Amino acid sequence: MITTVQHHLLNQQRSVREATGTFSRILSGITLATKMIEAKIRVGGLTNVLGAFGAVNVQGEQQQKLDVYANEALLHCLGQEDGVAALVSEENDHPITVNLDPEKGKYIVVFDPLDGSSNIDVNVNVGTIFSILRREGDLTQSILQPGYKQVAAGYVVYGPSTVLVYTAGHGVHSFVLDPTVGAFVLSQEQMKMPEQGPYYSTNEANAASWPAEYREYLAMLLRGELGGKAYSARYIGSLVADFHRTILKGGVFLYPPTEKAPKGKLRLLYEANPLAMIAEQAGGAAVNGALSPNGGRILDLLPTDIHQRTPLIVGSKREVEALVAAVRGAKG
Ligand code: AHG
Ligand code: MN
Ligand code: MN
Predict the structure, then answer these.
(1) Which of 19, 22, 56, 59 is the most buried (most CB within 10 A)?
(2) CA-CA distances (angstroms) from residue 231 to 4, 211, 251, 293?
(3) Is there a shared CATH topology between the 5-188 domain and the 199-331 domain?
(4) Does the beta carbon of 239 sit less than 6 angstroms from any atom of ligand 1?
(5) What is the mean pLDDT of the chain?
(6) pLDDT at 14 (0 to 100)
């Protein structure tokens, strides 16, 4: 007996307000697009889908062909959905309106179509990240809602197997794409992030330009002052893959402010917010390291721009709370 993502969501009918046909159809649009992306990635080296596309996106980054393909797949599969008011993509300068009838266009889907683009050509895990918001009145304001208003969030990591992880606010559940049936099949319910983990995950090449308290935090972890097992470093360079390992094994992923990206490199709406919702639902935490009382809980941040960036520290509670203490200690 297999349980697909759609069944699983509808089975939650009782507890998830969004478990409606419309919402389930949107989820089907996302899963169809990710299956199209997966099919391209699987034979990347044989088709003309690797390498640079030859254009620069709104982020100022060289678009890879697969970035463009993944974006077009999601725009195509979701752009036909009556229930979608607008789409926001890392690869598009502005939101794309789909159905402005407030009676029908109830949801906004925000996504990073292909995360980890620098790893596409070297056959390393990449992913797709999505976040679903409910339209509440003014469309622009609805797009710029804080992360705690997300109705669902998820990602697909394209790796040795293709795994979809999602939450609709009632736990985190994972599904494996079974190529024999062409469906994502339930593999784990109510995933829980370990209290503390053996891994820290960051690009240490930037350490010299982090605020000093981040270097001290890492040194504290490595001196074993947080207890637990001795730490090991793991950094894949695809946020989705580094996050997926963290939710399974525990530990902390951090992308602090750097000289090159003083506001952080990762994007709030379609990288930090969806992963923060999943982390919290799995018993973990996600902050931006700011000094506000809760250390800058990602889900409380009020977005002002659809492509705004944020520092991101996400993972097991122990490590994230220790980072907040380190930042607070440093700034007193
Ligand atoms: P994207 O490919 O969507 O632009 O995201 C890349 C991000 C994220 O996946 C990863 O964690 C980070 O960039 C890696 O940045 P560095 O190469 O600076 O470490
Ligand atoms: Mn990304
Ligand atoms: Mn991307």
Answers:
(1) 19
(2) 36, 21, 9, 28
(3) no
(4) yes
(5) 93
(6) 60
